[in-house]
Amino acid sequence: MSYEITNADIVRVGPGTAAGEWFRRYWLAVSTAKELRDIPLGLKILGENLVLFRDLKGRVGLVGMHCPHRGSSLEYGDIEERGIRCPYHGWLFDVAGNCLEQPAEPKGSTYHQKIKHISYPVRELGGLIFAYLRPDGDDPPPLPRYRPLVEQGGQRQIEETRAYDYNWFNFIENGADPVHFSILHRSDPNDGTWRSWFFDFRDVPAFDAVETEYGMKVVSHKPGPTADTEYVDEKSFALPSILQIGDTEFTHFKRDRSALLDGSRNEHIMFLTPNDDEHFTLFTVNYYTGPDPDFIKKLAPTRSTAPQGEKKEYDKRPLAPFRGSVRREDMATQGTQGTIGERAEHLASSDRGVIMLRKIIVNAIQTAHAGGRPRGVLTHAEADKSVRFDSFTGVRPVAVRQKESART
Predict the structure, then answer these.
(1) CB burial class (10 A; 0-12, 13-18, 19+) of residue 306?
(2) Residue 47 sits in which domain range?
(3) What is the pLDDT of residues 385-407, one digit of tens each?
């Protein structure tokens, strides 16, 4: 019997759910290489409790958190040359989930050969660790060679991992809603910066929602310095849960609009991994190819702006104050809106990016549910393909956007 996927299915990611099984068709970021040290790292991914570890030979494994013997947590296991050993009775597992030793069993026993623990394939790329959680043991697809993670010659930075306590999709659909940049993240429109001029809340820029090979993008635009050019700001969404923007070098350094004539040279890519229906983790990478040798060093301090003002003693709102900090502004709005399928909504014309995003994801889930290969999952013939997302900020001919929009 066929099952019709709806928007309400998008937000449920646990084992056996339509979106959960869809997510398991992709490689998901689960940690940074820097965070994986000499002790096991307990994780929750798509509602499943797991343990990530690196054995003493340098191999990385992702296995079920609870030992199949009597359920003790391998988060407290001992890391050895051949794998991870349960602290309770010493069963030893390698990165593939094979049980290698059972110290308390009779000498010569082969019972350990009958035990296969939950394990998932793991790959490292550009300082991030990715895992493929499809449970049926099929041959995993190639891990995409995301340009910001594989390109050489530029400056790469992996930001501090962030954890959020609301549904994953509230954050993702925020990326298809460029209008909120002008309203929620507003700043003084007279401060002389490009951002305040471009995203002026009294003169919100027009935008196009454009479907792409990897998902979609929103292209905000205003008239350029000449009649045939325009200022544009692109933000991309890639399946299953990746966002990329290109304006960090202008926004965070408070540049004026003349700086946009050179065009953006920093790819700011965010890999979002749902932990469960109410929590997600965000892994963020910057890859800069411009001329400033100290760009990353200068960028880092600008990424954690504190909110403006002190909290009033009578203000009981958990996230107040939040104005002036993009991260807290996002949390105060995204984290309080509830999930789609449960909240009441009245969508307007300015929500066309969000509407397109939902359709793209619903179609991808439906494809996976029907046994097909959803968009964004590479074939083995595409293993060497460099995966690039659009996130240009700057000045370019009006005809470029018009041509892209006409194809959608």
Answers:
(1) exposed
(2) 27-132
(3) 999 999 999 999 999 999 988 87
